[in-house]
Structure formats: C-alpha cells, structure tokens
Specification:
Elements: E1 3-9, H1 12-24, E2 32-36, H2 38-47, E3 51-54, H3 65-74, H4 83-89, H5 94-105, E4 109-114, H6 130-137
Parallel strand pairs: 2-3
Antiparallel strand pairs: 1-4, 2-4
Helix pairs in contact: 4-5
Amino acid sequence: MANEIFGPFHSKEDAIKKVSVLELKGLKAENITVFTNKENTDELEERTDVDVENNATEDDEKGSFIDKIKKVMLNSQDSGLNVHEKLVQLGVSDKQATKYVDAIESGEILVIADDKLKMGNDSTSDTVTLEEEVIHRN
C-alpha cells in the first residue's frame, strides 16, 4: 500500500478541505480514511464521503440504528480493532501511531489516503501509452 498521512489537523474545516483536495486529485473516497474523536465523527461523516474512524470503544458507542445496521452489513474484519491497531495496519509505526492516537484523543484529525489507485487508473487498462506507440512504430 502507498498510504500518505496528512495532519493532524486542528480543525474539521482543514481536514474536510484536505479530503476535497485529495478527491479532486483523483483519489477515490473509498481510499481515504479520516481518524478523529467521537465528537467530530458525525459532522465529518455528513460532510464527506470517506470512511470516518473514531476512538470510541464498543462500550462507549451506543450508536444510532443506522450505525448498527451499517456495522452488521459491512461486517468489516477490523471492526474490533482500536485506532492504534488500525493505524499500524495502515503502515504507521507503533511509536508514531501512539503520537497520532494522543492527537486524535485531544480533538485533532488525521487523514490517511491510499494513493495507489486513483480514479481513471485501471491496472488492467488496454490503452497504449505514447512510449509503447513509439516502440511499436520502430
């Protein structure tokens, strides 16, 4: 994975702007994850199309009916992982993940984007590049 880390951002506005810029650059919303505390989660989910992870534990999280359905329907493998473990899974070092978790708990927001596949970049594309065209002509 080619994950890039942006932030931590001190405001929701800055994080939302970064998500918008990444999408304008061609990243798919499904390849962008925002990490935040529980207080910022609802607004970030409403104002972006990306996955928003928070530091709430199963015991803390009462969640709405929709959240519960979403969790059951998606049945994600990492649903039991905490933010620290999710960051480590995304390639962040253990020490750096600890710093990011502290920042997230204090209200800051982290954006992680997997820029490996951008919109319009199909790894099985049969289009011929200019370089390949030159080779075929010679």
